[in-house]
Design brief:
By secondary structure, this protein is of the alpha/beta class. The chain has 2 domains: 10-151, 3-Layer(aba) Sandwich (Rossmann fold), CATH 3.40.50; 186-417 and 441-481, Dihydrodipicolinate Reductase, domain 2, CATH 3.30.360. Helix content is 33%, strand content 20%. A hairpin with a 3-residue loop joins strand 14 and strand 15 (387-395). The chain is globular. The chain binds NADP nicotinamide-adenine-dinucleotide phosphate (NAP).
């Protein structure tokens, strides 16, 4: 992270007592404090309905941070951090909350007048907050900038995303809106761009002449973690695939932008999304697959089926596994399938992009023990293994002409380099006004356009869903998405483990 020191701001966290704030935002802000990246004078103002004093809040934050602080909590850093922490007991539905915030920003010198508003709230609450930020006059940039960070999901289908955008547009200027997708804050995701565009080796191969297909996987071993009220209405397609996986697809498939500034990058990503072949209603079955987990074993322990999870209706057909096959109909990618899949309660927790190259001509080896030369793979591990690995075929030592797979490892991080959380980068970008890693509305809309036919079809076909035992890689039937017999889901980032 090499960022400029910038002006201080008041970071207002709506929903500061919630899950996202506890797990991600507060630890990330603490780490920014530790790295001395928070501008001097910056205040972090938590807003919630709980009847807490500032002292209680500081102790709460200590609890949120201490378990996650890298190398343990540093008391001196925490003391500095605690100086910034303020607490406002307020209900976001009431005008008085905004009057208080406005008074602090306009009249209290301890509160910088630049202000970021982070919506760590349920999506249903985004609308009322932006309305009131506008009606109270807070969103007007008279004495400093005002920025609003919107958490995902941005809508639950194309129509609702359009409605939400209309609402935002009415209340804020586009330059004030930061739509977050924390995947884009991950160093390994940004490394896709560096790997592609800072190395001359790959570019000549990065197209339909040499690439057979691309797989993008995000698998989790956890279930729905008590969030049935949200998850049962969303499902895997909306929750993960429309957002994170589509973002990965754009980074893998985009043309080199003229520069790394936010608009150039986002223009290229949108071009990819616009080039994806629309899935017609009659093609939905050929291009998509969904399933739900039944009970099974994860890490040696028996886990419940989705239908047995608390709060899930007994007849739910919400998918916990979703896979799509997409084609990008442009010069670079015509005819190359992109297979995307995501699931809960799977065999392993992993995010990766696996790119399979075409099978080389076999003729040369026809009179040797080499039966079939395997295709090369490029494996981009995103989490938990951060790696760039190129698998190639080499000759086995010995007298016979036999091949085996070896891999060139260009891992991103050395063991002595600490991993940082994506939210650290993104929270800092908001203060610095850098929107490169945030979504522009047309990206979100075009991603919805791609999945919307599938969302609609699945919403009407509610009487049957495939199942897979928890702890597995999903049902065998997903194979039907593959274009060719020799294509298969690549689960492992190591050679010959699938
Ligand atoms: N949790 C995650 O890991 C995660 C990951 C990615 C994205 N997200 C997104 O982040 C957002 C927040 O998720 P979450 O899991 O943190 O939700 P959550 O745990 O339910 O937290 C929501 C917070 O909103 C506050 N709130 C609700 N109504 C309020 C009101 N009328 N006035 C003031 N505060 C109010 C609550 O605070 P009080 O009850 O104290 O008032 C609560 O702390 C969602 O959009 C979610 O999709 C979450």
């Amino acid at each position: 992270m090499s960022k400029q020191i910038v002006e201080p701001c008041t970071y207002v966290i709506f929903g500061a007592t919630g899950n996202l704030s506890r797990r991600k935002l507060m630890p990330a802000l603490y780490h920014l404090e530790e790295a001395q990246r928070l501008p001097h004078g910056t205040v972090i103002l938590a807003l919630s309905r709980r009847d807490w004093s500032r002292e209680t809040w500081i102790e709460e934050v200590r609890g949120m941070v201490s378990g996650q602080a890298r190398g343990g909590l540093d008391e001196a850093v925490f003391e500095r951090f605690a100086h910034r922490l303020q607490y406002l007991r307020a209900d976001l539905n009431e005008d008085s909350a905004y009057e208080q915030i406005r008074t602090l920003l306009d009249e209290d010198e301890a509160y910088p007048s630049n202000a970021a508003f982070y919506m760590a709230l349920r999506p249903a609450e985004f609308g009322v907050v932006v309305d009131k930020l506008k009606s109270s006059g807070i969103s007007r940039e008279e004495h400093g900038w005002r920025r609003v960070v919107i958490e995902k999901p941005f809508g639950y289908d194309l129509e609702s995303a359009q409605r939400l955008q209309k609402h935002l547009h009415h209340c804020l200027d586009e330059h004030q809106v930061y739509r977050i997708d924390h995947y884009l804050g991950k160093g390994t995701v940004q490394n896709i761009l560096v790997y592609r565009f800072a190395n001359v080796l790959m570019e000549p191969l990065w197209n339909r002449n040499y690439i057979d297909h691309v797989q993008i996987t995000h698998s989790e071993t956890i279930g729905i973690a008590g969030r049935a009220d949200y998850y049962d209405g969303a499902g895997a397609l909306r929750d993960m695939l429309q957002s994170h996986l589509m973002q990965l697809l754009t980074l893998v498939a985009m043309e080199p932008p003229p520069s790394m500034d936010a608009e150039s990058l986002r223009d290229e990503k949108v071009k990819v999304l616009k080039s994806i072949r629309p899935i017609t209603p009659s093609a939905v079955h050929a291009h998509s697959f969904r399933a739900q987990y039944t009970s099974g074993i994860i890490n040696g322990e028996k886990v419940k089926s989705y239908l047995e999870e608390d709060g899930v209706p007994p007849d739910s057909t919400t998918e916990t596994y979703a896979a799509l096959k997409l084609y990008i109909d442009n010069w670079r990618w015509r005819g190359v399938p992109f297979y995307l899949r995501t699931g809960k309660r799977m065999a392993e927790a992993k995010s990766a992009v696996s790119i399979r190259f075409k099978v080389p001509p076999q003729h040369l080896f026809r009179n040797t023990p080499v039966e079939r030369v395997k295709p090369d793979w490029l494996l981009l591990g995103i989490q938990p293994y951060e790696c760039v690995r190129l698998e190639m075929q080499v000759k086995e030592p010995g007298l016979e002409m036999k091949t085996r797979t070896t891999s060139l490892d260009a891992s991103l991080r050395r063991d002595d380099e600490a991993a940082y959380d994506a939210y650290e980068d993104l929270l800092l970008d908001v203060i610095e006004g850098d929107r490169t890693l945030f979504l522009r509305y047309d990206e979100v809309e075009w991603a919805w356009r791609v999945v919307d036919p599938v969302v609609r079809t699945w919403a009407t076909e509610r009487d049957f869903i495939h199942t897979y035992p928890a702890g597995t890689w999903g049902p065998q039937e997903t194979r039907r998405l593959f274009d060719k017999e020799d294509q298969f889901w690549r689960h492992s980032l190591l050679p010959d483990e699938d």
